[in-house]
Every structure is written in C-alpha cells, then in structure tokens.
Batch of 2 targets.
Target 1
Amino acid sequence: MTQQRTTLWEAELEEDLQDVDVNLAIGTYGQNGLYDDAQSRINEATLIAAQQQMAQAAFSQVPDVVKRFIVHFHQAVLDNNLAEITVAYESGWNRLTEKFYAKTEWPEAEVIAPLVNDDQIFLILYRELYYRHVYSRLQPDIDDRFHSYENSCELFNYLLNSDGPVALELPEQWLWDIIDEFIYQYQSFCVWRSKVKSKTDEEIVLLSEESQVWSSYSVLNVLYSLIQKSKINEHIIALQEGKSAEEITEIVGEYGARPLYRMLGYFSIIGLLRVHTLLGDFTLALKVMENVELSQKSTFMRVTACHVTTFYYVGFCYIMLRRYPDAIRTFVNILNFILRMRQYHTRSYQYDQINKTADRMYALLAMCSALSPMRVDDNISNIVKERYGEQFTKMSRGEEGLPAFEELFLYACPKFISANAPPYEEGDQLALYMEDPPIEPAQRHLSLFLSEVRAQAPVPTLRSFLKLYASLDAAKLANFLDADEEEMVQQLMIMKQTSRSVSRFDTEHDKGLLDGQMASTSDLDFVIDGNMVHIAESTLGRKYAGWFIRNTEHAQRVFDSLRNSPLPIPPKTNALASKAAPESASAAPRTGGRTVAWGGVKA
Amino acid sequence: MATVALNWASPSTRTPLIENLVSGVDRYNPNNVGILEDYLYHQIRSQEYDCLANLAILKLYQFNPDLYNPDVVINILIKALTSSPFPDFNLCLSLLDERPVNQNADEPDPLPSLLPLLTTLYNLLQQCRFPAFWATYRSEEAEALRDNYTIECVGFENAVRDIVIRAVKAAFKRIGSARLSSYLDLSGEEMDTYVEKLGWSIDASTGVVTVPPNLDNNPQSTVVQESIQLPQLTKIITHATATA
C-alpha cells in the first residue's frame, strides 16, 4: 500500500523537485556535529551515537515523499519564497498528513534535522506544525504540552530578541495560525491543568515544579511584546490619519516595516481580545481593540479566520456588557460576510472551523434577538429560525426560557479558563481542592449572564399585553397579569430599562468599541401617567427602495444586453462580434509560471 | 460631546497617572496595586467612580492571588452596585476567580459572607424592586455591610437614589408621592427637598409628583420611513454615467 502511495506521490512531485538533491542534503549531515564535541566524555559520546542510531532508524522510516517535501519546504523558507511556502503550508502539509500521519505524529524534528542541515529556525517552524498536528489530531501528553510551550518560546524569542528584525517571511495565514495556536494551546493547557483528578503522581510533580509553563503572564508578555515591537497601534492610527507611506515607515520603525512583524503585531491584538475574553475580562478585551477598525475593507482582515474570530469575540464581549444591539450588529455583519464568501471557502482547510464558529454565532444571535428584538437581515434571521427556532421561541417567553438560554450559552460561549492553577505544589491544599472543586469558569460566567436574563424575565408577557392597548389603567393591567399592582409597576420600569441600551450605532467610530450612546431598542414604548399606562407603538413603513433599485438594475442589464446584441441584418457586424469573442477569452490567460501544488489541487 | 459610554470608560476625573495604568502594560505590574487601591479609596471618599481602574485591581488579584484584599474587593463591588445602566457589578464578579477558602482563622475573609447579600442587592436594583432593596439594605442581615463598608462610602444612599431617579424619569410622567417615597426611602420634608432639588414639582393637594418631559417619558407612535442613502444608488448612477 505504502509503496503504491509513494509512487503516486513521486510521480507528481518528481518534476518539481528535480533540482533538489536529497542525498546531498543528507550527506552533509554526517560531518555536521557528531565530532564537534571532541572534548565530551566518552559515555556522552556513546549516548549521542546511540541517539544518532535511533534517529537514523527513525529517519529510514520516513517515506521518501515526505523527505522531499521537507527539503523543498526548507528551501522555500530559506528563499523567503512566499508562494512556495504557502503551497507547502496549506496544501502539502495537509495532504501528507492525510496520507501518512492521520493517526500518528509527524517525524520528530531531530529525525528530519539532517534533511534541513540542522537549520534551527526551520526546525522551530517544523515543530510548530508538528505540535499543532498533535493537538488537533492526537492527544497531547504532558511532554507535548511542555515542549510545545518551549518551542513557542524559542520562536518568539528568535523573533523578538535577535539583533534587529529577522529576515524571515511567512504567509499571513501561517502567522495568524501561529498566534491562534499559541492561544489555543494555552487555553487547552489551562483546562487540562484544572482537572486534578485525572493527573498521575508524576504529572503532579511536574506541574508543581514548572508553574511558569503556559502562565497567563508569559502568554500576555508575548502578545504585548509583539504589539510593541511592531508598533502596530501607532501604525493603525497613522493609517487612520491618512499619513503617507513614507511617514508610516518612519513611525513604525525597522520592525513594523516588515510584513512579518506588522501582521504578528496585528494578530496579537486580536489574540489579546481573545485571551482577555477567556479570562472573563470583557471590558479590557474591547479596550485593547480600541484602535482596530472592524471593517471588511481593512487590509488587516485578509485572513478570513482572523476576521471571523475577531467578530465572534467582539460580539460575545458585547453580550457580557449587556449591549445586545451591538452584539447583534456585530454577528449579522460577519455572518453576512461568511454567507457571501462561502463559495470561496469550501476548499479551504479552515472551512469546517469557520462553519462551526458561524453556527455558534447564530446561536448567540438567537439569544440576543430574544433579549432585544431587532429587525435583522432576512437571510440571517431565516437561518437563525431554521437552526434555533425552537430555542428562540422558548427564550422569548421569559422565565421558562432560561434552560434554552443555558443550553445555547454553554454551546456557543468561548472556552473560559481560570487564570490560576490548582495548588499543585501544596499537597494538603490540593486534597482540599479536590474535595471541594471550584465552579468551572464557564458555569460562573453562565450564572452571571443568566442573572441578567432573569432580571428582564417579566418583559415578554408585559409586552404582549401592552401591544393590545393604546392606554389602560395600571390596576386593570395588574389584574390581567394576576399580579400585585406595585410589583407590576416595577416590572414596567424594567421593561423601560431593557428597551434602552448603550450602542455604538450613532457614535463616531474612531473612538473605539467601548464607546456608545444610549439608544432606544424597542418598537413598543409607554409612559405611566399617575395610574394610567399610555402605549405608543412604532411601525416600519413599507420599503420601496430595494425593489426599485433591483428593478432599475435589472432594466439596465436588459438594456445593455439589447444594445450589445448584434443587429440581425448586416452579416458583417455579426462576423466582427464572433471574432471578438475568442480574443477576449485568450486575453485572460493564466498569469505566472507553474506553482508547485503538493499533491495537486483537487478539481 | 463625550458619550455616556466614554464617560464610563474614561471618566474626566481620572488622573494621567491612573490613565497610564489603565491603558498601558503597567497595569500588570503587581507593584502598582497600591496606587490603584489608593485611587479606589479616593473614589469612595469623593463620590467619584472609575470602573476600569477598579477592574484593573481585580485583574491584578486574578493574576496574583497573594495580593488579594477582601476589603478592597467589597468596596469595588459597592461602587459597582450603583453604576446602572452598566452591568459593572457582574463584570467585577467575572474577574473574581474561585479561590480556595482562606485557611487563616485569625483573619477571616469577609467576602464569602457578604457576597450573597451584595448579589441580592444588585439583583433587586436590576429588577427595579426599590422598596425591597431598601428593606434588605436596612435589615439586620445587612448590618455588617452598613457598619463596616457603606458607611465609609460617601453618598452611597444617594447613588442608589440616582438609579431610582433614572428609572422613574424614564417610565413616568406623573407618579404618586407615596410610591416615589417608597422608591427613594425618603419621607416628609426630606422627600420634598429631594424632589425639589431635582426640579420636579409636587401637587400639595393630590400628592402627585410631575416629572418633567425628557427623551424617554414622551413616547410617540411613529411610522419609520425608509431613508435611501446615496451609496445604495452608486451602482445605478455609475452605470448611467458610463452608458450616457
């Protein structure tokens, strides 16, 4: 089987790799390091030799096609050839994973080191991919978790603490994935760490000794350092002020001028948004975003996964700040974008991830719409109804909808973490901790959210009664509701409160995501005059513009095609037109030379 | 003009030193916790409020459990109680990670016993159940909270009344003085002076308080007509000029 697969692969790869001599690359290794430590003690040398042997045995297990891939990949990185790196990164790696490493690790970096002349930088990048694969496909053990942390540190250390900016260039997608994965592994570690019961004694010892591994401080430190080094905030502000390219180069300095640092800086801002949300600091999460423009036109939004993540977390923070209209607008905005982009994403390896996030946003949108009914785009509201219609109906009924809120919240919320480890270093406290474990972070945030929901529970019923009248006596209304009049009047005040919300809608957008004005969010308004309740309902007039615009555009198209059609009588014009057609077709050739597609692009 | 949210996110009373801590990376430096705590006590004394600065304290406590000071946390929560329409109280609770029960018997942690009460008070305010709020607040159960904490917080009761006023102003055109009195927990002359200070008027014969018209207590039935924006028509106009 393997044999067959390999040949298939070789057939596809042979031409692309003809200028790379794999044997040469391996050949140089023998001299490279084995005898460098001439002074080392004998048993150390034996040890190295033994390791060497094991590595060589492992090396011989690596399929040739993988070796070729790594050599080529390495070369692309050495050349800073973004196109080739992208192909290797997005296509080659994933295809080879499917073929050979769907259920096992990729070869360890030490094993493939000879292929890349022991290039430490490439090996760090390789390990970045190696561990990401372990996390996504396999079960990372404690060693994987510690080592992936070390590797991340090495990578960021290299980027931040070399003499001046490094010359490395990587595709934007990969840079996003580096930050994204860094935070994912941190989050995953925190969750894993909090589960004391499943830890072995050995793991407990390790965890108590290495309390700095994946600490919140170290993660934040990396993100803030990247932001500061790249001067990304200064960069965004300069762009907003319309500064010229020269002025911007001046402002951002030698680091910020390089795409690698610029993008890492930007992605780190989004990373902070995410980390602060995971830790339950929703205000700070939005505050670090104060310079970022949530616009699809922004050049920083080219990486779709980043774009989607940003809106998800921003929307979620708005929910926790009880700014439901802002949350709704955020979700509708990105969900529309995802719908429009769908046709382009189906082949992306992140398609699944984006779809999952989108589904969670539909759930959050259903929650917000129940709490603060608002007209939203028909396409979007239809999907909400289709997927979460049942829950939506329950949630729109006040108190009895609480289980539905709970269900959707737990499904769609971020994977909250607690900032601190269980007391691994102190045995007796750890025993106490296990006996009486703290409430899980997600449950804590859920109960806070539900307390906000519960406060406005009486609103839907009141609303349905008020809708029937232009004015009525408060005592009579209380009677209908089978409630005490004083209590009912207090509920009316809640209703008034929930029909107002702070919203960014009418503010100047350069003041950041926390800015907002008080706005009315309901079509049903009322006032209590002594003992009478007066109700006023606003309605939406019929909309004509869309219809006229669509039909005008349609008429223009009809007119155009009529005008461009050849007249039936004179045959000359006809010939001309048919001659023009093939020319225009050939005028759009494929640009550029052949690119290497690892495994070929699936049609 | 600063918006309501901007006043909240960066109040004009915030000094440059604090602004630097709130907005910069120095907020993570545990050595700065004292400055922020002093600022909190300044807020307590001078009826100022700065939510983000107080959240920065809780953030430092979150990352450095050793710094944890229950009195500071309780004072932060008391300030947050009266910050309607923002959910500051819950934002603060979000940052309070579960912590192991304090083993030190000499210095018992007052927070666990006060937290349920504070949460109840917050929920009552959220639900506009003002008479119930005052009843709970004045109850024996809340004695420790009053005697040890809110008494130090200058203007606490009036800050609660500000919340009442906000809710009443939005929902009422006229309100019976008995009802208003139960919301404000004021009566007789105190109540009269308070209402007068607001610029509201009491009809002495009927005991009805008139609330001046504002943006919220004057609902109108409207028909929202669509307004067509130029960008919607760009495509048509561009096309028309191109083919003209």
Target 2
Amino acid sequence: MNSTSKEVTAMHNQPPVSDTKEPATAASGDSIPVVPLKHPVRLALAIVLILVALSAAWDVAVNERYRWDVVVSYLFAPQILAGAGLTILLTVVSMTVGIALGTLLAIMRLSDNPILSTISRGYIWFFRGTPLLVQLIFWYNIAALYPVIAFGLPFGGPSMVLGSANVLISPLGAALLGLSLNEAAYMAEIIRGGIGSVDKGQYDAARALGMSGGKLMNRVILPQAMRVVLPPTGNQVISMLKGTSLVSVLAISDLLYSAQIIYANNYQTIPLLIVASLWYLLMTTVLSFFQNKLERRYGRGFDSAPRRIRKPKTRTA
Amino acid sequence: MTTAMVEARGVRKNFGVIEILKGIDLRVEKGSVTCLIGPSGSGKTTFLRCINHLEKVDAGRLYVDEHLVGYAERNGKLYEMKERQTARSRLNAGMVFQRFNLFPHMTVLENIIEAPVHVLGRPRREVVVEAQALLDRVGLGDRGHSYPQELSGGQQQRIAIARALAMKPKLMLFDEPTSALDPELVGEVLDVMKSLAEAGMTMVVVTHELGFARQVADQVVFMDGGVVVESGPPEQVLGNPQHERTKAFLSKVL
C-alpha cells in the first residue's frame, strides 16, 4: 500500500515536467525530447531485494551445516544416477500413455454418442476426484482384490489364466498404471479445451475439401489445438516429473527414494535432498527449454508467434 | 434439360422446430452462374450448405451432377451415406466461405496443396506446380510462403478460391464471399470470380453484390422465408421484379 501511494504522488509531480517540454516542441518542430518517467520506489525495492538475495546466497555458501562437500560427493553417485534414470523412465512412459489415452478420452467426450461421452466423463470424474497417492497404493495392492489375472469372456464365461496378479503387476507396473491412468484424466480435459478452441469454420473448410474422420482431426484440428494444449501440457510434464517422487511409497528406487536410502544410512538428510533437488531442477530446466521450442513450432501462423522472414517478399522489394 | 449441375426438388431443412427451407425447387445448368439473393435468414446460406451436404437435407431431393447428395437410393429407400462416402461426394463442389476459413497453421502454398496431396493422394511435386499456377491466376504468385494471417482479407479470400480450385471441382459454391471484406477489397475478389465465370465454371453464389449479379449471373434467385420467391435472368428479377417481396427487398438494398 505504502509504495503505491508514493507512486501516485510521484505521478502528481509529473505535470511541471511536461510543461517544460511544451515550448521545446514548438521550437524544434520535428523531434521532441522525451524525458522518461522515473520509478524511484521500484528502484529502491529492487536494491533491497538484491541485498536480501546476496545475503541469503552468502549464508548458503558459508554455512558449514549445508555440507556442500557431501552434496558434491553424492551428486554423481551410481544410485542417484540410476534413480534419476528411473524417474525419467516413469515420466516418459506415464506422459506418453497419459497423452494418448487422454486424446482418446477427449474425442470420446466430444462425441455425439451419449454413451461414449458419459463413459469419458465418468472416467475423468473418478481419476481426478481421488488422490494420486491412493490410486498408486490401490494398484500396488490390486492382488488383494484380484489374486489371479485371466483373459476371457465376461459373466463367468471360459477364460485363460495369465498368472498371479502379484507377479504380473510389479511395483513398477503399479506405479506406471497409477501415474498413466491419472494423467490421462487431466490430459483429456486439456486436450478437450484445445479442440474446443478451434474455430468451427475449420471443420467446414476441411469437410468441403473432402476430409473426414481421422484425417480432419490429425491434419487440421489437432495441429491448431496444439497451440492451446502445449502450455498446460508443459505444466503437466513438469508436475509429473516431480509427482513421480510419490512412487517412493511403493519402494521403487526413483530419484527421491534413492536419496532417502542413502541418508537413512549416513544421516546426511539435507545434503542428499539437495542432491535430488538439483537433479529435479536440471530436468525441469531441460523440459522448459523443449516446451519453448515446441510452442514456437506450433504457434507459427498465429499472431503470438514471431514472424518469419519471407524470402520471396524481400526479393521483390 | 439433362445438363443440370444442381437440381433441387422440394428441398426442406429444419433446425429443431424452426423450418429454414420450406421446399426449394431450383435448377443450375452446367457452365452457368446462379446468384442467390434475399434478406438475412431467408435460407440462402443453408441451401448452399445443403448442396455440399454440410447440412443434411430433411426432405426432398438434391442432385449434384445427377448424383443424389448424401444418400444412396436403393429399392425405393434412401440410405444415409457413410461419412467417408459423403466426403468423397463433396469433391464435386469447391466451397468458399464468408470468413475465408483458411488453415492458419499452414502457409498459403500448404493450404492449397493440402487436399490434393492428402485427400486425393496425388504426388506433391506435381500439385505444387499447379498450386503456383493457381496463385498466379488469383494474382498472388509471390505469397506462397506467407501465413494467411499476414495477408489482407481480400488476399485471403483469393487464396481460399485458389484452394477450392486446386481440387478441380465441377461446381463452385460461394457463401457471401465479400461480406467480411473492407469495401475497397471487394473488387479484387469479384474480379477473380468474374474471370472464373468467363472460363465456364458452374457457380452458385450467395451474395449481396447486386452489381455483380446483374453483370455476371445467368440466373438470379430471390429467396425469402425459406422459399424461392422469384427466379430468372438478372434483367428480369432485378430490373423488372414481379413479386411484391422482391420489390420491397430491392428498394431497400439499392
């Protein structure tokens, strides 16, 4: 409040400045000297923030209890690298399945067939409405409900036994199932929003050119939906990357769980959490970089995209 | 009498309880230009969209090049066509929209070659050559690598015409092609349409440009309230209208 009121008074002091500018305009005629607006409050705030940030950084650097030596020694430890690898695997597989299933759910949700759209709606309702942690533990304990997994006809018809649920759905399998099915529900809503954002005239134009079904979707509608779908999907990938740390409850040695195993032995809790965080930060940074590139790719032809230099035009000009 | 490109017999169309088309009878001869005029809400655009089966006909028969639109007739029954068959049958007609509806994520050239390559499966190199010729024909030979949004409305509409022509249609449908344009851009689009008519293309044009209708049309059809009120050569319908509703409409527009 204080800073804004100061800014208001600063603005009230402006008129004299512009008054002195007026005669100069009349005299020179063509170019008017411009005195830029000054922001003294903003400047002071920035200086204070820099000082706070520097002192915090200084403290982190000199505080021995951070044990940077331990951080460095574990940064490339084999268990940590293996854990990071598994985290990437979980993210890639779950996001891929999530996006594919989510696209299918979104198209079902938009279908004219009321049964398809209701099924999709129900799926989204269920998987968004229950905690991911509960879903993960549920899949982990699926053998309690279905000790044997078999393939066959419903309502007690003949079936072929595939094997014990405990063997077929390993902890890793349970983690992938839980993460993918949950992600699909969120992606379905994101993709539905993207498809809905495409102008109805695009369907008319594509149909008039003889397109239908998958071709119309893949060539015309989905590429345009991408522009709207990408930013929230980037969010989803990053939150998935970190969300995979939930699977540590299933005793899967992802990045976080690997760090936990190490500090359970050597009691260096904080340094190992820093190690894990540094890896998470590195991975999310790389992801953001690719998100940026993709957004630029699918923004082509729209206002928000940077304009391409058109060769033919410059040649004729 | 057998050379009709479009033949409508008692075509009806409802949106819910509202009857938009109340039995349209119309013939469009091959190589002729028909202009549909009338107040907004008279059903002109809906009828045009029926010709391309973008709207389903509820009753009556609509033939394009002697094929029933959207249905197959067998044993005295009409069977609704599958989406893929309907899509095929749409290839007879090219369509140009009021809002252009170019694909914004593709360059101008990609817009034009999209359907010939991905619907007809023709070789890309061959289609690109034709597309360039079409661009030259609409006076935009140097804009192939622009994106639609970088062009003016008039230029976008000329590209939309080129895109429809790339499918080599037998018939061109225009849905108020100049209504979304700034007044100074209307002429360039009408010029392209005139040259197309001179080249012998069969055209059905929903328009408010009565000057264009008078100059280019072989047949002017005045629609109001979902029926054809009056039709005939332009000098008759526009110059000497017989019906009160036509007179009232023309007096407001002119």
